[in-house]
Every structure is written in C-alpha cells, then in structure tokens.
Amino acid sequence: MGGMDIEAEPTGGEPAVAVEWTVVESDIGPLFLAATGRGLVRVEFHADAARRVQMLDRLGGRFGVEPVECASGLLAEAIRRLEAYFAGDPRPFDLPLDWSLTTGFNRQVLRELATGVPYGTVVGYGELARRVGQPGAAQAVGAAMGANPLPVVVPCHRVVESDGGLGGFGGGLETKRQLLALEGVLPAPLF
Fold first, then answer.
1. Assigned CATH topology for domain 104-182
2. What is the model's pTM?
3. Model pLDDT for residues 103-116, shown as the tens digit of each residue
4. Vertex 155, ends 117 and 105: CA angle to 5°?
5. Catalytic: which of 18, 40, 78, 156?
6. Quick check: is 70 catalytic?
7. Domain map of the chain by residue range?
8. Domain 1-101 sits in CATH 3.30.160.70
9. What angle do CA 171, 175, 176 make, to 5 degrees?
C-alpha cells in the first residue's frame, strides 16, 4: 500500500480493510484484480470501465473503504503469477487468498477446487460435490462456480459436465474454452 494505512469502520462493526485494485491485460481480455492485506480477494473478467465502477462500488461497500488503485504492493505477486500462467506455467497459484467474499458450502467447494484440481485436468460438477461430502449437490456446485470471486486463480473453468460438455462459465464459454486450451485440455481455438 505504499505505507498508507486506511482506518475506517465499515457497516457491521468490523474494522475496515485496505483494498488495492488494478486492471491487467491477459490473453482473455482485461482482468480486474483486488487484494486486501489477507490476500487476493477478487478477479473479474471483461474489466471495462463500467465493470470496474461496479466492482469498486461493491468492494467499497463490503470493506468500508475506498479501494486504492495500485499495481504493486498487495497485487504484485498476483500479477506475476497470472502473467506466468498465461505464458503456460503450470505451477499452482501459491498466493494468499482472502476468502471473505464467499461463505459456507460455496467456500468449501471453492477451497477443494483450488487445491484438488490441478492445471491441465478437469472435474465434473457431481465429482466435486462428492469430494466435499455432498454427492447430490451437483447443481449447488454449479451455483458455487458462478459465484466464484477468484476465477482463474480458483479454477472454476476446470469444472465440466459429466458428459464432457463445458457447462456454464461466468466469463463466457469462449473464455472457458481459451483457458482449457491454454492448459492443454481442449484444442486451441481457431481464431
């Protein structure tokens, strides 16, 4: 944060958390990144001006502070790891993550996904449900994927239908295809 501490009280009585953000270019378009002192808290696809404003409003409301634009400090390592990922580096994202934008079942599923589905592999919605002890919750796993605040880093693009279909994806199916192609799961798109 460049030595700047933000002291404020958000609604709900919790102490304020400093939030840094930036937009980085990637092979799948601009990505909005935000981090707190606890770790990376948000990744958002298609980070045009309107999307940035929306994300800044949400984060400001959630954390009780005005997010500060900064591509160093809290975000420096996340930016380096994303650049390496898009260059084909298969290493896991060993980044501190701030899980405060997800709770309960969704958090449980996303944590399993983050640690249990490595680069270049896929898992079915039903299998992921079984892994978290809820074998009948494939649809709920789909909802958790749609609510993932950390796509790419927490690789919801690696969750597919049991019949081999892609399923849904918050960043759009073409983005999901591109990410799976980058990891060697699908053939590269023809464009």
1. Arc Repressor Mutant, subunit A (1.10.10)
2. 0.87
3. 999 999 999 999 99
4. 80
5. 156
6. no
7. 1-101, 104-182
8. yes
9. 90
